[in-house]
Design brief:
By secondary structure, this protein is an alpha/beta fold. It has a single domain (about 5-195), classed as Maf protein, CATH 3.90.950. The chain has six helices and seven strands, in the order E-H-E-H-E-E-H-E-E-H-E-H-H. It has helices spanning about 10-20, 40-55, 85-95, 135-145, 170-175, 180-190, and strands at about 5, 25, 65-75, 75-80, 100-110, 115-130, 165. Strands 1, 2, 3, 4, 5, 6 and 7 form a seven-stranded mixed sheet that branches. Strand 5 (about 100-110) and strand 6 (about 115-130) form a beta hairpin. Helix 3 (about 85-95) packs across helix 4 (about 135-145). The longest helix has 14 residues, at about 40-55.
């Protein structure tokens, strides 16, 4: 069993979640095209990108790769990362007062008893947004937290003030469904967490 997990992602949220539970981690971001194909369903999109990240990551026989991709979706449409304050405000107005989905696909690649192992998972979480008045929306956009975040908010930060309910995995909304990933690692025979060696909050 390998003790090192290669994370094919530059996401600091994913890294922090995995290190927090004591997993020995090496970050190896995968450079892949993350553009959405015409007519692509959100779940198919995140699975395709996660698979591409896994395929692009080189590993030794004693190493495991974890690749993941997360998107925010509403009414079947994919909400990516806003490029401007105006685009962020538009996304947040659309989300306000409604429930949307956060979908993450993750792929584990490794070897057990000399045989290749590939484990795929898809996790969805429903997030209910509060109604947002113009002042609150402008205030949040001014915080700048939306930058680099799918759906233009971060539930682990200031964006928690915009959310009234979460149904499903909370860590999935942050960027990685931690319980599901750890269960998949155990099932696949991959690296296991050492909670006592983790980082308390």
């Amino acid at each position: 069993m390998s003790s090192t997990l290669l994370l094919a992602s530059a996401s600091p949220r994913r890294r922090e979640l995995l290190q927090r539970v004591g997993l020995l981690l090496e970050v190896r971001p995968a450079d892949v095209d993350e553009s959405v194909h015409d007519g692509e369903e959100p779940s198919a999109y995140v699975m395709r990108v996660a698979r591409a990240k896994a395929a692009a990551t080189q590993r030794r026989a004693d190493e495991w790769v974890l690749a993941a991709d997360t998107t925010v979706t509403l009414d079947g449409q994919i909400l990516g990362k806003a490029e401007t304050p105006e685009e962020a405000a538009k996304m947040l107005r659309w989300l306000a007062g409604r429930a949307h989905q956060v979908i993450t696909a993750f792929i584990l690649v490794g070897e057990r008893d000399g045989q290749p192992v590939i484990h795929e998972g898809l996790v969805g979480t429903e997030v209910q947004f509060l109604e947002l008045d113009a002042g609150t929306l402008a205030d949040y956009v001014a915080s700048g937290e939306w930058r680099g975040k799918a759906g233009a908010y971060a539930i682990q930060g200031i964006g928690a003030a915009l959310v009234s309910a979460v149904r499903g995995s909370v860590t999935n909304v942050i960027g990685l469904p931690l319980a599901e990933v750890l269960a998949a690692l155990r099932e696949a025979g991959g690296p296991v967490p050492r909670l006592a060696a983790g980082t308390p909050a």
